[in-house]
Design goal:
CATH architecture: Alpha-Beta Complex
CATH class: Alpha Beta
Largest sheet: 10 strands, mixed
Structural class: alpha/beta
Helix content: 25-40%
CATH topology: Spore Coat Polysaccharide Biosynthesis Protein SpsA, Chain A
CATH superfamily: Spore Coat Polysaccharide Biosynthesis Protein SpsA, Chain A
Shape: globular
Length: about 250
């Protein structure tokens, strides 16, 4: 049987005590077993780190890193990327979940089709049960992604062996979109899988503050990407419209 390449799973944590155990368990439950889980804690003030340490003691594939000061999810993810050893880099937040065949399905898809950046469909959920399913387009280019981030961070995987380690911009919001655009500047397209491979929690603090998203998005276009005013207006309107449609699912 062909050897499985190592997948580095990148997980930021901040005051995640209520959800992180379930997220870690969804990685442990993967049918694909050659992974390492790198959790970087952003100075939590609850018992998140104690929970993670208990998993580290039971499974040497799970590793905890700690930031010296609260710096945001992008900095936490970058710390884990820096410490990663995998051929592939995958992302899962500490309040989201993977389905058991997530890695096996997606890595096989990437290897067979020579894909460098991939993503999948995912399902929204909350304490009240499952919600709508977000089905992404089969592919996306740099210009297309500018007007709507169709790559759910909890589903994304990139080939670090070919692309090298790629990091997120050190901004408080939209870091994941910045990373996908960084990769898409060098590859023609990212490719998606229609299968639901992950579950996105919608009733935690990380995902409830929708009204600030547009403010951050404008700043992302202008300050991070350096788009001119007119292109920013065009992208911003399309992004807001697509975001409204997505929120209705």
């Amino acid at each position: 049987m062909q050897e499985q390449p190592l997948v580095s799973v990148i997980m930021p944590s901040y005051n995640s005590a209520k959800t992180i155990a379930e997220s870690i368990e969804s990685v442990i439950a993967q049918t694909y077993q050659n992974w390492e889980l790198l959790i970087t804690d952003d100075v939590s003030v609850d018992n998140t780190r104690d929970i993670v340490r208990s998993y580290c003691a039971k499974d040497n594939r799970i590793k905890l890193f700690e930031l010296d000061k609260n710096s945001g999810a992008g900095a936490s993810r970058n710390s884990s990327i820096e410490n990663s050893n995998g051929d592939y880099i995958a992302f899962l937040d500490s309040d989201d979940l993977w389905l058991p065949d997530k890695l096996s399905t997606q890595i096989a898809f990437m290897k067979f089709n020579n894909v460098l950046l991939s993503y999948s469909a995912y399902q929204k959920f909350s304490r009240d049960g499952n919600g709508g399913i977000i089905v992404p387009p089969s592919s996306v280019t740099y210009e297309q992604l500018l007007t709507g981030n169709v790559i759910g961070c909890l589903t994304a995987i990139y080939n670090a062996k070919v692309l090298g380690k790629r990091y997120m911009p050190l901004i408080r919001k939209r870091q994941d979109m910045g990373l996908w655009l960084n990769i898409l500047a060098d590859v023609d397209k990212a490719f998606g899988i229609n299968d639901v491979l992950a579950k996105y929690r919608v009733d935690t603090g990380m995902t409830q503050n929708k009204f600030n998203i547009l403010k951050w998005q404008w700043a992302f276009y202008r300050e991070v990407l350096g788009l001119n005013f007119f292109k920013t207006i065009k992208c911003f309107i399309l992004y807001a419209y697509k975001g409204f449609l997505k929120s209705r699912i």
